[in-house]
Amino acid sequence: MRLILAITNALADETRVRAVLALQGGELCVCQLIELLGLAPSTISKHLFLLKQAQLIESRKEGRWIHYRLAGDDAPQAVRDALAWLFASAAKEPDALDDAKRLKTILKQDPEDICKRQMQSLKSCSCAPATPAAAKWRKAGLAISRAR
Question: Is 0.85 surpassed by the pTM of this model?
Fold first, then answer.
């Protein structure tokens, strides 16, 4: 029962549904999802956490990058059924079609360039590399955790 509740909770939010639909085309890095969904990295991270907790998505880390993909064939039946239902139900939704078009454009861009652009826009954020808070973290020998 817990898994079913986690799945329904995860799919009860438009942003999370959009993220899952975006992953239907294959694996994406966090910066690509941020670019598509237009939300702050911390917000995207929370959404991805809930989707992962519901076992709808999986992740892998490669260096500083984190890539997300849909749950595989070994996922519980409830997860596979929920994903199948979502894809069948949302296939013709205007928002999903708009996201698919935007994602094609995003996938033509180098993820490094997307990431650099996003980091530059975070200059006012305490986690941005050029801020005094970030300098304190570096001085203390702590890495700034970015979802990459």
Answer: no
Q: Which CATH class is domain 2-109?
A: mainly alpha
d(CA 125, CA 133): 9
The total of other beta-carbon atoms located within 10 Å of residue 145's CB is 10
CB-based contact 28:148 (threshold 8 Å): no
How far is Cα 55 from Cα 66, in angstroms, rounded to an integer?
A: 16
**What residues pair up with 69 in beta bridges, in sequence order?**
58
Length of the chain: 148
The per-residue pLDDT for range 90-100, each reduced to its tens digit, is 988 999 999 99
Query: What are the sequence ranges of the domains in the chain?
Result: 2-109, 111-142
Backbone angles phi, psi at 106, to 5 degrees: -65, -40
Paired strand residues for 70? 57
